[in-house]
Amino acid sequence: VYHTECAYDIDSDHRRKGALKRDIESLRERNGALGVIVASIRSLPESDVADIVSHIRVDDDLDALAESLRRSVNLPRQSDSQTLEADAFSIERKPALSNTSDVRQYGHTSCLGLVTEDQDMSPWSPIVPVAPLGLSWTSVTNDVEFINHLMNLYFAWPHPFYQLFSRECFLFDMQKGRTKYCSALLVNAILACSCHFSDRIAARAVPDDPRSAGDHFFAEAKRILNEYETPDLTTVQALGVMSVREASYGRDSSGYQYAGRCLRMALELGLHLSITTAENPSISPSQTEVRRITFWGCFNLDT
Known about the structure:
The protein is mostly helical. It contains twelve helices and two strands. It has helices at 17-43, 46-58, 62-72, 84-92, 144-156, 158-161, 167-176, 184-194, 215-227, 233-248, 252-268, 285-302, and strands at residues 96-97, 103-104. The chain has a two-stranded antiparallel sheet. Helix 5 crosses helix 8 (184-194) and helix 10 (233-248) packs parallel to helix 12 (285-302). Residues 108-135 have low confidence and may be disordered.
């Protein structure tokens, strides 16, 4: 603009990515050199240690000293597990296992993996008694054919996109009347979501109002959610389904709220941690797989 030749030295601005990357690499090399020197002092006899100390006092080039020590000294292998930081990290990553093999993870500062969580609640049973074939999970309707209709719609449309739970484990427990991978909250949330895809009058809370589709099942899900606040796997899954349902009805703010609760509860349960059967024999392979499915479903939903 002013016909003046300008020159800019990108290295002078240490806020830029290139400069930061170089600074980090320099610090990493410096830290590595210091690590070699300290390891040599620990492992060498006193006479050799005195030579190293003398060299440090007269020469600031620690990189050259470290390189010389690497070539001439057999240093013991250092593993991350030998550092205090790695020890603390390994402790912090351990979740708390309850007596019923439920998993809890209250954050990286709690270290609750060292203790067994106290159990002051008995296993929760469905609000509605389980009928033959285990299909009476809701008080909204006792029409088994209608429930199957809504379930088929859910697995045909929302489930392939938002896989928040294992279809096989859920249906098996639903038919058997078990509450490990199925609950009244999750069933009502699914039915509320799938009503959006049904043209039946029974799918509406108000027969003449198409916008009320699924409201009766959703109200039942909210009632159960308010009465039962203990975090567990099916509650995380139900919150995710409720978020999808609210967003599909154009209620984005409500959908965000359920999605936020879903993700926070997933982190509390430690679903983001890799827990294998080999590490924790009390956790079955199916439970490990369901935990993975649920976490990545929550991640995709949040994203």
